[in-house]
Amino acid sequence: MDLVLLIKAAIMGVVEGLTEFLPISSTGHLILAGSLLGLADAKAKVFDIAIQTGAILAVVLVYWQRLANVAGGLGSSAAARRFVVNVLIGFLPAAVLGVLVYKTIKAHLFNGPVVATSFIVGGLIILWAERREQRSARILSVDAMTPLDALKVGLVQCLGMIPGTSRSGATIIGGMLLGLSRQVATEFSFFLAIPTLIGAGVYSLYKERGNLSVADVPMFAVGFLFSFLFAWLCVRWLLRYIATHTFTPFAWYRIAFGGLVLLTYFTGWVVWAD
To answer: Who wins on pLDDT, 214 or 66?
Structure first.
């Protein structure tokens, strides 16, 4: 067992857990951290996607009672059925588009300039969204969302496939621009992440199964564990944070991080795929 490799896996798990549900793009951070740690080969890319399931487990734990009530009420509660339908509708666009354009995105968009531009543009959009959110929020509960609302958020989620955009950022800020309150947009982003990231993880593991072996289990297990722990802490903190704060600090962070990505790209400090 390679202790150094396990430490690197733990660090990557921490990065994934802390960034997956914040509107700052876990992908961009994982690419940067992976390059600095020497984890940038094909197996590492599968690892990055696989440990997202640890972050999803954290959401399931935080919302365990809500999810259990929904599962138990499917046969008798219209609200429970509407919740499940909305999540599935929101998930569908990313599922279809992901299968169709996965290879194209991987081949052409995982590069420094694209990631940096996505960070900076996303930051500017967050600043704009926060200025108008309070005036335009019309949906104050996840249960008040219609299938059309879910579909719109699902379509916006597809923007998260662009490296550096952030799946959570696209769904949260997109939801706010579509009329969801900050709280509702954040919670629906969490629920939408469950099928989306599990699906992405399973699909990636299947596609790249030839590059994996039993010897990789400890590395993946450590990354999964740390991703779960830090995502659990992050989700609980974020729910408290949004009750009294805006996403503006994350916008400025994105703009600064985008500048850092450009610096690492043009100086050659980090190897970004071309």
So the answer is: 66
pLDDT band at 64; cut points 50, 70, 90:
very high
Q: What is the DSSP string of 62-73?
A: HTHHHHHHHHHT
pLDDT digit string, tens, across residues 243-264: 899 999 999 999 999 999 888 8
Find the distance separating the first CA and the last CA of the chain, reported in whole Å. 33
d(CA 24, CA 27): 9
Q: What is the pLDDT of residue 135?
A: 62
Over residues 115-156, the pLDDT tens digits come to: 899 999 999 999 998 887 556 678 999 999 999 999 999 999
